[in-house]
Amino acid sequence: xxxxxAAILILFVxxxxxxxVLLFNALSQKVTAQLKxxxxxGVYFLxxxxxxxxxxxxxxxxxxxxxxxxxxxxxxxxxxxxRDAHQSDATIGDALNQLGGQNPLPASLTIKANxxxxxxxxxxxxxxxxxxxxxxxxxxxxxxxxxANLGKISHNIAQVGxxxxxxxxxxxxxxxxxxxRLAIYNDRQKIAVMRLVGASKNFVRxxxxxxxxxxxxxxxxxxxxxxxxxxGFLDASIERYFTGLGPIGLAMYYSQHWLWFLAIQLxxxxxxxxxxxxxxxxxxxxx
Length: 287
Prior knowledge:
α8 (201-241) runs antiparallel to α9 (250-256). It is built from 10 helices and 4 strands; from the N terminus they run αβαβααβαβααααα. By secondary structure, the protein is of the alpha+beta class.
């Protein structure tokens, strides 16, 4: 009983670690997606640029496959946002009042791409368009390094996540194998007797394979419940850590994909349990 409990506990720990790596990978992707969503390129126009021309450029940008969204900010809206952002700064308020009602801010287009590596092509399209004579500035050059770094970070996170999953799988298998081998070692004499009386290898192996499957099922359901409870407590802390990125919702992500996680946990646990049992029993088959 004690050895069986230890085997289930090791499988539980193993599957919890694998699930933790999968959740970390999902968290990394969510954070990266939130960061990418905050990246944009601004096109600023001359103060005398016709609004109709700006809207025509916006319409053409929206036809590009690389473009996710284009927000038009008029001069009046830009001034309103500027006042709202600096309403507590009396100096800026006085400076605006001294302009006698004139608006010094330009209209702009805020462009969001589907992926960070597509901004260069979008900016190139804008620079080659017929509207360059009304454009005052494009802030892509100032943001280019940050956008490129974000793309590299996203790629590196994906690679690290895959490597971590593979390494955790190998380590987990080795640890579980040794634990199950120890559990089967206690029954080595029973295996020897069964072989001496003529039992076939499959007949001897069968109960241990079933035992490995049962350990895996118990470990998988324990893991599913453990992470469901843990994320309920951890979710708020995770979102506080990533303040400013908006809701992460890792607990909701887990609850929405619980069937997928359970399938991974069961498949991993059964693979480890069955493979370990077969290999461990084989050591005691020859009598």
